[in-house]
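Hi all, long-time lurker, first post. I run a small reading group and we've been trying to get comfortable going from sequence to structure in the token notation. Rather than ask abstract questions, I figured I'd post a concrete chain and ask someone more experienced to write out its structure so we can walk through it together at our next meeting. Sequence below, copied exactly:
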Amino acid sequence: MWSGYVRGGAATRQPCAAAKDNNYLLSLFLFPRFCEALMVAVFVCVCIHNDDMVTIPEVMLSSGAKPMPLIGLGTAVYPFAASETMRAAILRAIELGYRQFDTAALYRSEEPLGEAIAEAVRSGAIESRDELFITSKLWCSDAHGHLVLPALQRTLRYHPHHAMFPFHYALQRTVWNLQLDYLDLYLIHWPVSTKPGRYEVPMPKEDLQPIDLSSVWKAMEQCQRLGLTRSIGVSNFSTKKLETLLSIANIPPAVNQVEVNPLWQQQKLREFCVAKGIQVCAYSPLGAKGTMWGQDWVMNCDVIKDIAAAKGKTLAQICLRWVHEQGDCVLAKSFNEKILLDILDWELSEEEKRKISEIPQRKGCLGLEFVSDDGPYKSAEELWDGEI
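-- Answer (accepted) --
Happy to help. Here is the structure in token form:
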């Protein structure tokens, strides 16, 4: 059944780690986000049921590195802040069986993720970091060739006293924050550069700069060659920007991480990525309600509500299952602790998929913080090359 879903890569299946409680197929763990009031985020985890192993499908990326699990945990909790609760929640996720984690310099989640991984190894929840697939992203203020790539010829792990030597500045900071020797996947977060030094969004409009994609991508390629990351890719790239990148790349991007959900299905972009061997990873599969980049349109969609009611599933399950059936990697997150995000042992019918395919499309994350009359993109249409 699974082989029909994967396009652009060879799928394998990997048993998840055993959980202490064998009563659930999919368990939830709470991930609080801090603002003026505490809100709770819930994440999916695949566990064991009645001693039968439930498997998480994986896809082999074009780089040929180890397979990437097609269900992962995103750690972008807005407003961005690290916390002890975040570390504990990630550790619990590892104990329950999660094996892919998505972070970024911007999210402030690299350090608690690294601490959770180290603790998971010490406690025996995993034997080594190699059991996990870790993705991080290059923020716009580091998207400059000279910040991404010096000539690394020494140890991958950064220490402050090594400042006398040339380093891959941005990625070395990432592996230091994560306490890891390498990443599995490193992405250019946005096709934009900003003045160095700021890790914030929204950023001052006067900081926006055009990205020198050639020099930045050459630096990304060097990171892979040096073993700092096993694969490289991009995020928020349109078809046109991918075409430009492919025309200059020696190592093609393995992944394009973009917004995907039933209200923003990305058919044109997905078809292009499949043809070029680029794996699509879906962020905001539920619309990211409650964040500065999200909307509530997905969670309020009547078509999905009707399908969920008729099928005896939750709206979130329908959305996540639909993305999963496209062959995309799903970075799952929900804000309702009552939802049992069980998406692996059932399918959408052809009629249900037809109804979803006919939902009017509207993009939730327009990236307006990167648009300015004086910047490289004067409108959202320019940023997305008309693909909105």
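A couple of things your group might point at:
Residues 110-123 form the longest helix (14 residues).
The two ends are 32 Å apart (CA to CA).
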